[in-house]
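Memo to structure team: turn this sequence into structure tokens by end of day. - J.P.
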Amino acid sequence: MNRISVVSLDKKLRKFEKSIKSAALKTLKILKKNGVEADIYLIGDRQMKFLNKKFRGKDKTAAILSFEEPRNFIYPKSQFKRIGEIYMSIPHIKRQAVDSEITDYRLLIVKLLIHGFLHLFGYSHKRKNDRIKMEKLEQALSKEIKYSNQRQRVIQRPGNKEKRSNFRLSN
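Reply from structure team:
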């Protein structure tokens, strides 16, 4: 069992919380990770730009940022191991989907969420070999989640009221 909390720092983004939590839990399950805890924050461009400048020195917004949990930080006893935090700018992701000619931005959200988790588990794309390894794993996980979603009919189109699963990325 894993523990994921999804927090929207903008009221308009609350509608994404359940579906992103579901995608996060599914990602951890496919990665065969158990007993981990992570926080996911849904934020706007202004907040993302601030974080990106403060922690990466880049004065621009980003789609996603991941921060690994400090190694020697002392926490109260828990059955879960904290792995870190993921920050997602949904407005930026929507624009990135349009710019990349991705017809369904919800699939990009899932792909970027996977990317964020891989960083929390120590994957990097600084060196070419690491980048290739990380991209292959991202693609495999994306396909697995997409296949699972199609099989279970869990990514639903806007306006489809069918309640087969709680994994829906709303508009």
